[in-house]
Amino acid sequence: MSYALITGASKGIGKAIAEELASRKINLLLVARSSSLLQAIAEELANRFGVNTDWLAIDLSSPAAPEQIVAWLEEKGYPVHILVNNAGYGLSGAFSSYTAKEYREMMQVNMNVPVELTALLIPELKKHPKSYILNIGSSAAYQAVPGLTVYAASKSFIVNFSRGLQYELRNTPVSVTAVSPGGTNTDFASRAQVSLKAVKAGEKLNMSSEAVAKLAVNAMFARKTELVTGFVNQLGAFLVWLLPKKLAEKTAAGIYSND
């Protein structure tokens, strides 16, 4: 009996991925900060889909979090064949609006946790006939985004980390998939303090968390290396590659920057 471990599973895309996997009769281990939300989701999914669930409330911005998660898995005796590195958040506005500590904590969640959890769990994942790593990036990964500078860079890191690791593991049972959503109906904009202008610019193109989750899980099981969700986002990623970088950055700054 093996499990899927999902970080950032208490809301948004992480919660939707948990529901999608549970509907496919996959047992779940849910990780996020809120014990009350995790407990409620774990109980609901166990009752609805007849799967085994457990949860761990932990602050992923703590450098000790990845090793604490793996220690919990070992203590409970939970074998993991799916790792979903979903947890992440953004900080919107001028770079100087935030402290070094705030950036360090965001980078810890967005980059260090996925790398460290992956490194710690690779030996376990290799034990299974088929196992999967699903890393959630962002359509912001495909260009510099003034006003979301560090967030976009952190997601670019995730996409490139995923692609490199997928190649390294190509002859093992482990596949790595990077899925980059565009605007999604989550609380990302609120937590990142994205401007109303940016929210309005994207709301008509937003996808639901459930739609993104289904696409992400399908891509993972198909062992795809990379997916940008939604035709408009795919087109945007292509145009950013095609157009001069300064033009793409000026356009993004017009949406996200307050300068």
What does this structure look like?
The chain is of the alpha/beta class. Helices cover 52% and strands 15% of the residues. It has one domain (3-256): Rossmann fold. The chain has helices spanning 12-23, 35-49, 65-76, 100-125, 149-168, 188-192, 196-203, 209-221, 231-242, 245-256; strands spanning 3-7, 27-32, 53-57, 80-85, 131-136, 174-180, 226-228. The longest helix has 26 residues, at 100-125. The termini are far apart. Residues 195-202 have low confidence and may be disordered.
Summarize the model shown:
By secondary structure, this protein is α/β, with parallel strands linked by helices. It has helices at residues 12-23, 35-49, 65-76, 100-125, 149-168, 188-192, 196-203, 209-221, 231-242, 245-256; strands at 3-7, 27-32, 53-57, 80-85, 131-136, 174-180, 226-228.
How are the secondary structure elements laid out?
Elements: E1 3-7, H1 12-23, E2 27-32, H2 35-49, E3 53-57, H3 65-76, E4 80-85, H4 100-125, E5 131-136, H5 149-168, E6 174-180, H6 188-192, H7 196-203, H8 209-221, E7 226-228, H9 231-242, H10 245-256
